[in-house]
Q: What sequence folds into this?
């Protein structure tokens, strides 16, 4: 049978991978949001320089509108994924604490068994002398 500290270690390893995945998802969404912000600035530049280029302002306006909708969706996704990441992080911390407690308990049991064994050996020596 596996010791509880080893089980916690395995759980901790899996949870760290989940946490890493959640963190990466948040970063990907943040990059997507930054890209949308850059696109928005580029479109505003186009609107300001409209007399120099031949582009319909309605097209740029619709693109800005789509960009804003996309940005709101990405921001909502960021909020959800950030919450998932924070939950994963909290689970990692809990598992670390439990793993440390289990390791300490196992160490105490080992020390206690050693003490009992030594006392038993001393008792046997004393009774034979």
A:
């Amino acid at each position: 049978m596996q010791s509880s500290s080893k089980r916690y270690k395995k759980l901790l390893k899996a949870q760290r991978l989940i946490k890493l995945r959640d963190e990466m998802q948040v970063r990907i969404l943040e990059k997507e949001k930054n890209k949308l912000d850059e696109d928005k600035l580029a479109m505003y530049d186009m609107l300001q320089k409209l007399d120099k280029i031949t582009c319909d302002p309605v097209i740029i306006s619709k693109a800005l509108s789509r960009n804003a909708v996309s940005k709101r969706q990405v921001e909502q996704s960021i909020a959800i994924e950030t919450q998932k990441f924070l939950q994963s992080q909290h689970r990692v911390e809990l598992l670390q604490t439990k793993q440390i407690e289990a390791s300490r308990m196992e160490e105490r049991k080992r020390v206690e068994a050693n003490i009992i064994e030594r006392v038993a050996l001393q008792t046997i020596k004393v009774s034979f002398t």
